């Protein structure tokens, strides 16, 4: 038979079931987003507008995510993660479904922008739930699982999206809306009676952004989040297709292969990075991830053949996969398990969104006026600068020493309580020899 200690130890190594619910929901949401991705630019252009106007529809979603992030953080703190998570998903579902029935370009722009508000609501609340539900020694693995679910959904989604686009440009919007409703139902069904996921009735102080900025690990996380948003969500999406056509002289489909190779490298590292971050610490993994990401990104700009180009994309994907779980876990460590750090999480998300918006503009201007090599080099250097910021940051993973100190403190509190209730014999002698004051009298063997 297993001892009680073995059973307790195994339970301590398992993630709560609620975390798996969030992982499944993120996977379903990502599939829907992948379904929509191939259709959105063409659908916007179908309203007889130019490339710039069609691009604004895509940018409006990102801009509203950025603008509404502080509000989302306050809503999470005020009403709790679970209701804001479900409401956010349903807002995106309704706005996406409405896009399929838009009668004009302006209606499409409005509906898509509204979706950005819901997107930041469920993203901030989902991360806040992960922070609160995951034990400190499992936060890296929880973040890795959540990221893997979202990434795999993004890889699978476009396959279905391509089929739906061939039938009708409206079908991907309806497919995404259906996926969101399904995700909301799954989350509601399995979280509605969860005591762990229930809103915390805590009148304690909220961790503000100003307070978090005093922690060097949070400042370093903002720096790496900005660099990652710039490189992964900005430059990779905007410059890679242009680089493929202008420099490598390849068909646009090669850009799709590059995205796939990057995603493979990313997915290969996420779970491993989360596991290592929970064992070796957050800081080493973040530093390694930033350096590898920088090397891969800079290498992209200097490739002249398809094999080298794909290899550089793979390296960049490996670096991004190593970076994200420990980076997210570090922010969670700063907040702690009290789950009242909505504005802090929103600020962390905003830096990535800012990088994703500014990155394509700056890197695109550099590529146009100087060269693609310079554009990718600047992008990679940002990751190296973020690594320098991390060098000055402390490790946030609770160490064995801290855990031992915590156990000792709890033991001392137990002794104090026992002394107050008269459970301790404070006499000077015991039958077994020298007596240590404050210790219970032991019988002779």
From TrEMBL:
GO terms for molecular function: transmembrane transporter activity. InterPro entries: BT1, MFS, MFS_dom, MFS_Efflux_Transporters, MFS_trans_sf, Tet-R_TetA/multi-R_MdtG-like. Keywords: Cell membrane, Membrane, Transmembrane, Transmembrane helix, Transport. It comes from the Bacteria. It is found in: Cell membrane. GO terms for cellular component: plasma membrane. Pfam families: BT1 (PF03092), MFS_1 (PF07690). SUPFAM superfamilies: MFS general substrate transporter (SSF103473). Residues 18-398 form the Major facilitator superfamily (MFS) profile domain. It is a multi-pass membrane protein. Belongs to the major facilitator superfamily. Folate-biopterin transporter (TC 2.A.71) family. This is MFS family permease.
